[in-house]
Amino acid sequence: MNMKKSLAFLCCSLLLACGDPATPAKNDSAKKDTVKMHPSRLPDSVPQKFGTADAAQADTAFREFAFVVENRYIVLTAKPDTNWVAGKPHAPAESKHRGVYFTFADVKTDLLPAAYAELQGNSFWVCSDSGAYKASVSGFKLYAASIPHFGEVQRWSGSDGEKKAADADEQMAWSIWRSGAVLLVAEFTTDPKEKISGLLGFAVPAKNPAPALYARSEEDTSKIRKDAAQLMQATPESKVLQQDFKKAFPSLTGSWWDHESYESFVYFTRGTEGIAVMNHTCGSPCGSEFFAEKTGAFSLKKAGAPLLTMLFMQGGFSRVMIAADINGDNTPELLVDDGFGNYAWISRVNGVWEKRFHLSIPYFDCPC
Fold first, then answer.
1. Which of 8, 253, 334, 348 has the fewest CB atoms lying closer than 10 Å?
2. Which sequence spans correspond to the domains of the chain?
């Protein structure tokens, strides 16, 4: 995982892809028939307001994509007006997923810009890792979230050896409110039979076709994992990491890839299409002489001779939460998480992979 833990606010980001395609090892002719290299790296972001506009640009909201948090709220903007707050944040703050604590405040709906208020009753496709559901907006709230230090969580609960304060629940809610990302969100309702899961999802207008979700596959992926690892190690970035590794450990032989390494792998399928994502980490982010973390995304055409193609390789996220085609181009978009409160929506635009939308929750915990 990377060490970017700055106090970031919600923004929309567009990444310009770059990097030359690498090629398979020349002495591996058998691999050339089944493995194709085409990594498009995603470098630093260029801010672009779209879909999560501030109040002055509210009319651009919901035109294409919005994040969904806590399975029940669609993010409208990260720049709510403080005059919209009605009352104080609800106590206690809640936590359901990966250390994220959140609280709410009610909204003075009569002060909301028309572009938001008029969403009342509108329908959207709401998607999580459990599927796509038709939902309608039923109200509005101000949502605040952060990832607090574990010591503060212990103090709130009284598990630090001290007696829990009588106003600990209020302290907790105010701490999250003051330190967290504060978002205007739309509450939505779905059919009671629908069971939406996961911390994070996304929403698109109901006038669009239902997003086509890729399902997590339980099939044997040992061959795909082996090919994916070979592709990642053949990239120019990997060669640079090998040089850095040798500088850190001049007496060691072998590859950076094998140094104190651990990895995660997920494989999604839809029809004859497959999407594989491998996250490979070496060393520790806390005090290690050498640390590297890279994630590679790959497509697999299962029709005919299987062909594994690298889509891009990037540091900065460790988990793919959802893979879905939301625009009908038969190419998946990816909802990703870096483990430090940063979430992004990655899609291909004009043949180039871009990180188009970015949601950040302030991180105060210790990665060690």
1. 253
2. 13-47+215-325+327-360, 55-210
